[in-house]
Amino acid sequence: MSQVLVDQETTTPLLEVKDITKEFPGVRALDGVRLKIREGEVLALLGENGAGKSTLVKILTGVYQPTSGQVFRNGRPVSYTSAQQAWADGIAAIHQETIAFSELSVTENIFMGHPITKKGGLLDWKRMNEETQALLDRLGITDFIPQTLLKDLSVAQKHLVEVAKALSHDVSILIMDEPTAALSQKEVEELFVIVRKLRDEGKGILFISHRFDDIFSIADTFVVFRDGDFAGEGRIQGVDEDDLVRMMAGRSVEKEYRSRKTEAGEPVLVVDSLCHPTEFKDISFELRRGEVLGFYGLVGSGRSELMHVIFGLNKACSGSMTLNGAPYQPGKPEDAVSNGLAYVPEDRQDCGAILPMTVGENITLASLSKITGGLRLKPEKENEFARRYASLLKLKAHSLDQIVGTLSGGNQQKVVIGKWLGVDPDVIILDEPTKGIDVGAKAMVHSFVAELVDSGMSVILVSSELPEVLGLADRIVVMREGLMCATLQTGDTNQEEVVALATGLKTKQDSSCPC
Amino acid sequence: MEQVIKSYEIPDSLPQGLLDRLRSREALLLLLLGLTVLINSLLSPYFLDIYNLADSTQNFSEKGIIVLSMALVIIGQEIDISVASIIALSGVLMGAAASFGCGTGTVVLVGLASGTLAGALNGLLVTRLDLPSIIVTIGTMSLYRGIAFIILGDRAYTSFPDGFQAIGQAYFFDDLVPSQFIVFVMLAAGVWYFLHHTVYGRRLFAIGNNPTGAKYSGIRVDNYRLGLLTLNGFMSGLAAIMLVSRIATARPNMAPGWELEIITMTILGGVSIFGGMGKMPGVILAVLLIGMVQFGMQLNNIPGVIMSIFTGALLVVSLVLPILLGKFFSGRK
Asked: According to the model, what pLDDT value does residue B1 have?
């Protein structure tokens, strides 16, 4: 095996990425990254959330164009402007959430967009079904047939249909973005059998996963990105998990976002063995006055779902909470707000802001009754209120009448934060408050969090950005797959430990829930 | 750009030019209304007669009453196409009550209560079962009219207390203005105030623009949905009272196609079919406009079939117009 790999070092890679940089307004998502996908090799792409993995996939499949740098296909410089072009050139990506037509058959899904036709333009279903069967045979799939409807397949089987679809285009490079995220262990094994088969056929496979187990059992080589930078590459055989974690997390400079005060206030929010039927289990923590409590975990660790329960959007099935010493059982968000708890959601566009409405209307939305003191709108008071929070957050807008949807992401986020500060909460939950916003707005949010806690507010900071959590939080709760792995004092921990806990290198404690 | 915004003091609004105001949908509707009046007065010498004109308000005001609440429903991203069936059901139930010898007060109560309950059932189905209101009200559209047919078959109730008939046949201001128009104007003022000057109206716009975002802002979205559909039922019951007392007849097949006309007026008035956008002045102007067009057609003896073609065409045009001219007309703000 290793002999084969060595031989390939001298051949031209199927795909080579050289010094790719991708900038979005105010954000550099990729900064001079490189990688090589070789024939008959599985390359694992690793990195934390936001490391730039998805951006690279989008560049390789023609969704984005790089700001600078070059992609080479068999040594020939290429630049794709559409997914069709990438397909035609033999590159196919299978995404985390497969886009499939659930009411159509396997055959129809595979030949969607490029049907086989008879003379005269009629569809040749017989041949398409035969070819589909041939693809399924090639992949060794026996548990469904070309005529099976997609809705009758499991998530794992749908992935296999995507693989078959890619093969029907005769691709030579297959990009698999978190293909195992929703699969059981057995399904993962079955998928890997097929991945190995494709590798042995000479395909190049770019495999993106958070799970180290996957990477060690399937990948031949790896490349690590960190914050859009290239952080390392090599053979899987030569490294262990700790090496990879260090490459993913290790940063040269650790930044302090605020100076911490040592004295902890009295508990404001106490959560006791909270359970949810599917998303999280046995969550207990205390949030103290004037404290920032960070929540770190990978996508799917149950952090946001926990916050939804605390804010009254969903219900827990067991466990209890107290807020300011009184029992707290929110049945709806209004209960949370009236008890002094505010939530800035992760999805700014759909949940946080009302994009088609104005800055003023958004900022006042949650505090209307308080501002007007009755039912009649009072434009003067509303404007005064909105302007106060707009200037507090240094909002850039041409007027209070500007439509929020026309603001930049960072300014939209300021509007949402302004709305929640307006209700004058004791506890504010910030769920990924700096996701997708530019550096300047990010720094603003960070310094603002510091001001909030200094004024006696308590903050729960949910973030996938480790430096942000380490730089702002007093303590960090690490979650993995719906469980609390640890509660760490920020001063006593480091990035490696947090990443190791979140990715499950260290053993987790088991917990039981009555539901 | 960066230098311009030195301080973060933000003005309330940017100055709005006269041109922007002229580009509004209200200006367009006013222009169309003027044209309609002009053409009608040229075609028929009877159009501009003050008594004729005032009397013509009777017909569109009954629909207009429901248009007011329909505007709220559609702004809230819902729809209700069962309104004409609610009129039929409420009308028949009122007729039944009258035939049992009930007095005016009871008959009115039956009308309002049956409308409100029918609307509340729509609302409960939408909110408790999380069903789209279009599907629910397609179902109840058949259901309510079907119940009316079961009660009455192809017969009609024609005897009502005198006091009840006085409601829909009364005229005010020197026997000039029919009661329907008075009710419409008063309710229009009320809904206008509710939508544009209360906390509830603001929250309704938030719901219509982004129901999820509204929910995350602590607004009880389902309560608003239930309330809106119940209100629409109440208004349908009220319209049934005005209609039945005017013609002193209740039949299961009355108010045919009204749901179409009512929704047409609402959309023509500038309420976005996608929710979140709409102004009461526009809606009221659209009611007047369609009312005047229909009055003119009646005066010129244009048959009802043509009118229905016209209404259908107007609905399509009023849906297409804002999309085509979306950039030209500035919507709510």
From this structure: 36
